């Protein structure tokens, strides 16, 4: 193991500090500052800040030429109130590190600690702390940043802790592992009226009532079926919060999900047709916009082979688990740049689920995740 007991104590303190001060997507300024401060004594060859927002990239270089390996963690927390009695619980009302991004960030700091003491023989290692993973905007912003060309990798890797999976075991496979998804915001516009004379207005009540079951009826199958689709209504509103006004406007938010990107356009088209038809029948105006756009994650066979060898070397049990999963992951954008792969590291079969208010990243996962990633580095760049 390349980390000492003292390292583990300091890494846990770093993780707990991040956990106390969660920042949501696009607001990770102080989280990024804490990462940069922790990197300073480790003397990477280069540190890029404000990458694609508040992103941070640390570069460790070997003495000879070779491939560039990128390892990604996430900076952002969630807009969810944490319910915990832990000493390191969130100090920010309504926000919490309830997905483990504080832990993933700590794993990369553990890697930086090891690389600072024993540099790679050749090539480069890029440690990327990515902003805004939770809303799907961060990876696209990082890739669009002109400075990304300085760290463009030959392979990219990531992990995600996974409650429900036995502690310290891993799930890994080639091909799709996370679904594509996007948020569809539907706006229906008519005309308000006095509640005593609703016939003088134009209400979207019937249209919204028709659309919600019609949209979700397009859900079909389950992963790993390539024709899997899922439409989930996540929010709906109608009119004003008043008893004297018949409604004139309505809004529906729907998450659309497909196993692979190629299926998304068809699902969007079908949903838009339903909206247009419902609006036409009711005489309403309508508008559709898309948000939180995630590409599907697809693990490249070559990158998976590197992770398999590392997991085996570190004696971490692994299989395909329940992959692919329905959830989305912003890491999917990286496959447009280079072969990439993500594995899922078990946080315990009875551990609170991700995004639950009582979730907390298990600190004992840090050493396991760091060992696996370091094994990839040593096997590839030695």
UniProtKB/TrEMBL annotation:
Residues 182-281 form the Peptidase M20 dimerisation domain. It comes from Rhizobium rhizophilum. InterPro entries: Amidohydrolase, Bact_exopeptidase_dim_dom, Peptidase_M20, Peptidase_M20_dimer. Keywords: Hydrolase. PANTHER family: CLAN MH, FAMILY M20, PEPTIDASE T-LIKE METALLOPEPTIDASE (PTHR11014:SF169), PEPTIDASE M20 FAMILY MEMBER (PTHR11014). The keyword Hydrolase applies. The keyword Hydrolase applies. This is Amidohydrolase. Pfam families: M20_dimer, Peptidase_M20.
């Amino acid at each position: 193991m390349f980390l000492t007991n003292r390292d583990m104590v300091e890494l846990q303190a770093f993780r707990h500090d991040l956990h106390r001060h969660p920042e949501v997507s696009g607001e990770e300024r102080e989280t990024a500052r804490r990462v940069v401060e922790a990197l300073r004594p480790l003397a990477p060859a280069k540190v890029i800040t404000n990458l694609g927002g508040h992103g941070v990239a640390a570069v460790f270089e070997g003495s000879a030429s070779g491939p560039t390996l990128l390892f990604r963690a996430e900076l952002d927390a969630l807009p969810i109130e944490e319910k915990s009695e832990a000493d390191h619980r969130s100090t920010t009302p309504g926000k919490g590190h309830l997905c483990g991004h504080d832990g993933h960030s700590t794993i990369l700091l553990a890697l930086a600690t090891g690389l600072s003491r024993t540099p790679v023989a050749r090539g480069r290692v890029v440690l990327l702390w990515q902003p805004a993973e939770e809303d799907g905007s961060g990876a696209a912003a990082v890739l669009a940043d002109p400075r990304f060309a300085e760290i463009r990798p030959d392979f990219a890797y990531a992990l995600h802790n996974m409650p429900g999976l036995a502690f310290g075991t891993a799930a890994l496979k080639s091909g799709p592992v996370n679904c594509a998804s996007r948020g569809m915001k539907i706006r229906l516009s008519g005309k308000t009226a006095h509640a005593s004379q609703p016939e003088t207005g134009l209400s979207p009540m019937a249209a919204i009532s028709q659309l919600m079951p019609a949209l979700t009826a397009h859900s079909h199958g389950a992963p790993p079926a390539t024709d899997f689709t899922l439409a989930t209504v996540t929010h709906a509103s109608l009119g004003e919060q008043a008893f004297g006004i018949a409604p004139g406007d309505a809004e529906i938010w729907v998450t659309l999900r497909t196993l692979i990107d190629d299926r998304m356009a068809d699902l969007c088209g079908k949903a838009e047709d339903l909206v247009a038809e419902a609006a036409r029948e009711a005489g309403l105006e309508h508008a559709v916009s898309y948000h939180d756009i995630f590409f599907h994650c697809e693990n490249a066979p070559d990158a998976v082979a590197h992770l398999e060898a590392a997991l085996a070397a570190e004696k971490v049990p692994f299989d395909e688990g329940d992959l692919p999963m329905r959830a989305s992951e912003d890491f999917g954008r990286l496959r447009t740049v280079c072969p990439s792969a993500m594995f899922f590291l078990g946080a315990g079969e009875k551990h609170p689920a991700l995004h639950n208010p009582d979730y907390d990243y298990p600190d004992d996962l840090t050493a396991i995740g760091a060992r696996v990633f370091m094994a990839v580095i040593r096997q590839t760049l030695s």
